[in-house]
Amino acid sequence: MKYQSTNRAKSSKPVLSLLTLAIAGYIPVSAIADDQKPEVITILGHADERDGQWYPGAHQHANMADIERSLDANLGQLLKSSFVSVSVNDVQNNPFQMDLQYRGFTLSPLLGLPQGMSVYVNGVRFNEPFGDTVNWDLIPLTALREVSLYSGSNPVFGQNTLGGALVLDVKDGFSFQDNVLDVRGGSHGMWQGTVESGGNSGELGYYAVVSRYEEDGWRDFSPTEVTQFLTNLTWKGGEGNRWDLLAAASRSDLIGNGAVPFDLMALEGRSAVYTHPDQTENDHWFASLAGDIQLASNLSLDLNLYYRDSETNTLNGDDSDFEECEVDGEETLCDEDDEPVEFVDRHGKALDVDLDEMGLEADDLDGLNNTSQTKQKSGGVSAQLVLDLERGSFPSQWVFGAGASWADIDFRSDTEFAELMNEEVGSPRSTSGVGLYDEDSIVRLDSNRTQYYGFIAGSLALRDNLQLTTAARYDFTNIEMIDLAPGEDGTTLDGDHDFNHLSPSVGLTWQFMDQTSLNASWAQSSRAPTPVELSCADPDAPCKLPNGFVSDPPLEQVVTDTWELGVDHQAGTLQAGLTLFYAMNRDDIIFQQAGGLPSEGYFDNVGDTLRQGVETYLSKQWQDWHLSVSYSYLDATFQSPYISFSPNNPLGGNRQVEKGDRIPGLPEHSAKASLEWYWGDLLLGTDLLYQSGQYYRGDEANENEQLDGFTLVDLRASYRINEWVAVYARVDNLFDTDYETFGAYGESDEVLEGVYPGFDDARFVGPGAPRTFAAGVKVSF
């Protein structure tokens, strides 16, 4: 694992998005005197074909060897355990549904969070068009050649790069030449099997991987199944020409039953769930074609084309918001405004319902099955020219690019009335649907999202030890929404929204000593509101994510300015660095909780927010020992006063948030350490993670107690028996520490007061996993 504030490793090989185009970077200034040729990091080009790719800010990389040594089963676990300034809110307690936080910016599969990072896989932007979310289950960790995390709001990574960009570089037949079978098993019914193969003929290369993951889950009623496939075909010609055809598919069934009232864990254990199921099924495939064409000795053309197709189905068993009432002498259900429910079937056809004749009682319908289906088809094309200019002692490189992308989104959701099984202690608290649906909760939304952009980026050697990089990018986004729901309210979601922004960046690197360099940068990027945010932005009619949207007031786009100042030192096997960062969001969008569930509310612009802090790292090799440590301090605060709705706050709703109040869900301090010992073919390692406390979501005014911090210790070991066989094992949470990674306020009494009289705990938490064990064998053939 390499932590670097200015990259000194020429093995750093980002392959970025076909949607975004190019990024200004620089070679180490210590090398400028020897080779007067600066480099701009090109987004579409293949990194292994270019040396000296540099970025004006902090960046971290994990290569194939780092990934293999970590013994992690998925990408989220690798980022949590190894990358500086990365923390996790494990809301769902599913290994493929964690919320990743980097410098206070979020990257998550869950709707309702302010997404602030971009993700790319071999030139394909992997943020989902509907909500800029990312599905961790789509790409097998085994298939990655390198994982890179770039800091800041550099505009050339495209929209939504407010806090950084995660770049995933896939293996090919030139970087991986082997046939491997990897099988592991462990606690809570976990097993995973992976087969991968790669090779080349010198000109043609292939890589393919198939992976299957299953587990019962350590929480009750929480099984997971994930199947992944990926293949990458490569042709290399002379003079640096290259084409790659990448295809991947995945299918998953994820059950993550979410947060639980804090006091319920004392009554039923930490594996208890509040209500269930909370199920997400993903079916996804994509293909991309990328080409690098050398037009002249100093001119190259990079092309990229992709298509993605995904379908996500969700089922959430929840408590009901409807109450028993009497209308015309008959018992029925009414909403919070005392309006009687209009019952329909799942197609929206009106039903003449008599609950007595159906053998149902209104007070028994105390649960809901919220279901949704999201179909997303998206594609894009882009091109960029890379031009090298020799001007005496001051050479430069320039990149010119443009591109377009589109997405067609079909979203539908329904709310089915159900019976909640919560009669006594030991009841499963699951829901059983009765076939009746709420007419007002039907959502049928068709959305089209179109983006166009262009940019210019350049790198110039001002003198032997001073490098300038600069870039500017223009983005235009159109989001069209068509409400297809039946009934009189079938046009409330209609809308046509345009967003545009010109974002610049500039950076300087100064090699003021032989082994030490200083870099400074300023960059700006923007994020247009997503269709899910635009469709759920009315405080008078909150929605239940991800299952309902109710009107279309406009939202402003978010614009982020990031300043960074970093110093990096490398002497032999010692690497150390320090980075100061300051990121200001204007017109930031957050999700305001407005109901009994943490997922019920609306999106709102709340003014400015600030994320500033310091991060530092040190890495050292002593013969058979390797030590790495890192520390991050994050000051994440609201900079504009506003009223937080917070209906379940213990102090009451409508709390006044003042400038300087901390943003909930973000730890102020985090630290990581790793110690490895090598003895022949044996590797022993231990990892430590510390994370300080955080405020509950819903306590934006910082008036209540915080969630406690925690420290975790993991162990891992691997041994290569011979050339063909290796075995490995790891233990997570060695000391079986009880801890929580997430907190929010909710309403628990209506579900639990019948079995636990007087129960009224508003604190919902995401409990951390207990001690878990995994072991496996890897066979090459």
Automatic annotation (TrEMBL):
<comment type="similarity">
    <text>Belongs to the TonB-dependent receptor family.</text>
</comment>
<dbReference type="Pfam" id="PF00593">
    <property type="entry name" value="TonB_dep_Rec_b-barrel"/>
</dbReference>
<feature type="signal peptide">
    <location>
        <begin position="1"/>
        <end position="33"/>
    </location>
</feature>
<keyword id="KW-0812">Transmembrane</keyword>
<keyword id="KW-0732">Signal</keyword>
<feature type="domain" description="TonB-dependent receptor plug">
    <location>
        <begin position="56"/>
        <end position="165"/>
    </location>
</feature>
<feature type="domain" description="TonB-dependent receptor-like beta-barrel">
    <location>
        <begin position="265"/>
        <end position="734"/>
    </location>
</feature>
<dbReference type="InterPro" id="IPR039426">
    <property type="entry name" value="TonB-dep_rcpt-like"/>
</dbReference>
<keyword id="KW-1134">Transmembrane beta strand</keyword>
<dbReference type="InterPro" id="IPR012910">
    <property type="entry name" value="Plug_dom"/>
</dbReference>
<keyword id="KW-0813">Transport</keyword>
<keyword id="KW-0998">Cell outer membrane</keyword>
<dbReference type="Pfam" id="PF07715">
    <property type="entry name" value="Plug"/>
</dbReference>
<dbReference type="InterPro" id="IPR037066">
    <property type="entry name" value="Plug_dom_sf"/>
</dbReference>
<keyword id="KW-0472">Membrane</keyword>
<dbReference type="InterPro" id="IPR000531">
    <property type="entry name" value="Beta-barrel_TonB"/>
</dbReference>
<dbReference type="InterPro" id="IPR036942">
    <property type="entry name" value="Beta-barrel_TonB_sf"/>
</dbReference>
<keyword id="KW-0798">TonB box</keyword>
<keyword id="KW-0675">Receptor</keyword>
<protein>
    <submittedName>
        <fullName>TonB-dependent receptor</fullName>
    </submittedName>
</protein>
